Amino acid sequence: MAVSMDDDVPLILTLDDSGSSASAPLDDLDREELPNENGGSYDVINDASSPAAGDCCAQQSSARHNWEMNYQEAAIYLQEGENNDKFFTHPKNAKALAAYLFAHNHLFYLMELSTALLLLLLSLCEAPAVPMLRLGIFVHATLELFALIVVVFELSMKMRWLGFQTFIRHKRTMVKTCVLFVQFIEAIVVLVRQTSHVRITRALRCIFLVDCRYCGAVRRNLRQIFQSLPPFIDILLLLLFFMVIFAILGELYLWKYFNTLENSLVNLFVLLTTSKRCLSLPLDVPACLRSPQSIRIIPVFSLQLLAVVFDTFNDIEKRKFKSLLLHKRTAIQHAYRLLITKQRPSGISFKHFEGLLRFYKPRMCARERYLTFKALNQSNTPLVSLKDFYNFYEVVGLKWKAKRNREHWFDDLPRTAFLIFKGINILVKSRVFQYTMYTVVAVNGIWILVETFMLQGGNFFSRNVPWSYIVFLTIYGVELLLKTTGLGPVEYLSSGWNLFDFSVTLFAFLGLMALAFNMEPFYFIVVLRPLQLLRLFKLKKRYRNVLDTMFELFPRMFFAGVVYPNSSSGEPWQLYLPVEKGPENGSAWGFANEATCCKNLGDTSLL
Q1: pTM higher than the cut 0.85
Q2: Which of 44, 192, 208, 360 could form a disulfide with 116 if both were Cys (CB 3.0 to 4.6 A apart)?
Q3: Nearest by Cα to 376 from 341, 335, 342
Q4: Which residues make Cβ contacts (< 8 Å) with residue 82, sequence separation at least 6?
Q5: How far is Cα 278 from Cα 267, in angstroms, rounded to an integer?
């Protein structure tokens, strides 16, 4: 029987005693359709001699089995392309296939993850540890040995799958094996001596976690960092050369930052890695005030070299993307050759495409397989060509759901309710209703101005709830209710302006509660009432475009404010302008005396 796995795990194919597959039968298999290539060279049945020419049942059974092996091997190739597994790791025999299937299911992935987490959590229980979490030496050493034995079992399965020659050529696996060997010896020593000692190699336990399937993104980032180190080191050496030249030719003003080689390297690294150079103000401003030529340090020392580093990282990203794309295309080509027939080598039929998806995504239903085939077949022919098959990874990830041909959310309601909601829908979409609400907003704004001019004592927060507040809030609440019922909650909240109206109305209601129950800490909510006036600017297209842009940029502006907040020691966004504009602007800001320039900021920016 077939084992049901998740979508990203190939279906493990096992055969009954009669040799028939437990998957969906291929009764409509044409006896003339023979695979272009026989996959599953690791299968023992394929090595058997061909049956007699008159034995039709045996021929059908053999052809069916060959196609099942092709489907499975094509699915493995596609998964190797998706996971960026090298093709020399492809299983080559029956033992390698069994180990591959075992090492590519979620039970194995969870075993890897749990073992790595157990090794990391043991650091909380080993000496030195807090008394509440400390375990005995025998206990934590035994747990460590158990976890390491599980890792040995995982590596043995990978060796069975890859083979010894391929296993020792895999760099990450060999690093993991070396770390495992060292920690295995240390765990045995601790268990024999019954005494804990300083173990620096415990810091390498994170390698077991990084090697897990679920940490693939972490591995990719680490790999990119290590690949980027050589050009980055070259840039630092070039920068060190410029620093030596400037140190010989220049004059040392800020001696406490560059008095030693160690401090120079640390502050140089700060200058390089600080965005917008806010933290480098104590180094730049005094030098710019002494000599206008010192401003050249900005393009020479930082911007140009940072541009080189960015260009290097960008080139690595492009090469990696190209490598991944070509690897996927190669995997698709391997799978394509296994799915075409000798009689029709121009494309893949739906029957064989469906057989592929039964192994590649076992949980995909028949309707989704058919829709995937139609979406992939852009040429509208019975066969999927290689050009269309190149889009396999993009199309197979699509999610399909039935779309009902409904215009409104209330179409399925009884006729009486349908007529009521239909009338509300027509009302809220009419221009009369919209301009009526604009008029109410304008009247509300004028009323707020009148109330503000009539205030006595300058106290905007009145102890009594004004009746106008209740009237206008009631009108806004009725508008909100009509739009929600007429358009539907999903369609109503999908519009940014409707979401803005909902938020302002909600805050106005909270402000009414604050006034009614005399909640002084929440009186600031009442100030948000005039925000309803922004709806009037929506009438003109130019204002509408400006406000839409502002709302789009507001999240980024918010996070920029979090990164660069005002502080008592300085205001980075205000001090940034004089430095980038030129030294002549610095004197206008009161930086003429370099002895007091950025005194507090210099102590806090460079450590």
Answers
A1: no
A2: 208
A3: 335
A4: 328, 331, 393
A5: 13
